Amino acid sequence: MLRTFIAVADKGSFAEAARSLNMTPSTATRAIKDLEESLGLTLLMRTTRSVRLTEAGEGYIGRCRAALAELDAAERDVRGVGAKPHGTLVVTAPMVFGRLHIVPVIDAVIRANPDLNIRLLLLDRVVRMVEEGIDIAVRIADLSDSAFHAVRVGEIRKVVTASPAYLAQHGEPTSVPELAAHRLIHFDGLAGPPGEWRFGAAGRPALRLEPRLIVNSADAAIQAACLGMGITRALSYQVADDIAAGRLKRLLVDQEPPPVPVHLLFQGQRSASPNLRVFIEAVKQYFRTARLG
Q1: pTM of this prediction?
Q2: pLDDT band per the 50, 70, 90 thresholds, residue 1
Q3: pLDDT value at 77 more than 90
Q4: Where are the alpha helices (DSSP H) in the chain?
């Protein structure tokens, strides 16, 4: 019943779910009805055009995914295939970080493990791991209060950069207050208080922003800086290649905030999973030499 419930929720259709599970639509409908009756809850809202989760269904489906993942792992162990990666691993990471640094890891993992498939979700938001069926997440943050198990694999910094051409024309700032006289490019998705950039170990000094350009994409902000449009702030891994190539210069290094750790986050009871183990080891190996800035 749980697999049927998840399939109907994912497909948004009893017919599509039944087809994917090789059963009749009436069998799928009966399974959901029996499940709802056993719980005394309505999990799915049906209309003539769609099927969607109720509030109770939203809360229940994550636990179903986690329970089935554990059952699948136990079944693989019993059948003797639990020692090697097998099935599907669901990974999430921030958009740019994932594109630059997690896709190469996945390439190596898939090449080395022919029975393992990976689903990668690149999302610039904090996902609900259990509810959304995520096995492992890349988080760029301090996680002292996390309920999940975390493995630290690296660290990054918030850096201020500009192109050599811009600095040659407008001068190079040597203190935070001097930034106010420059053309600023602000990426409004960068973590921190809205409308300001903070510096130093205690978040001071702080610069109230009056940017000439505001964008909702880190890539756009960096490209604008490379074109000489002004000074921008980004995460160090996002501009590492541009700095190394001389397209950007790092400014006010002694005023930068403390580094932010990069973690792999997963449920503690899943630590024995061969899928997780092989992915975590591949990430660790990659970040021993990766340039994060």
Answers
A1: 0.67
A2: confident
A3: no
A4: 2-11, 14-20, 25-39, 55-78, 95-97, 103-112, 164-170, 218-226, 236-244, 274-287
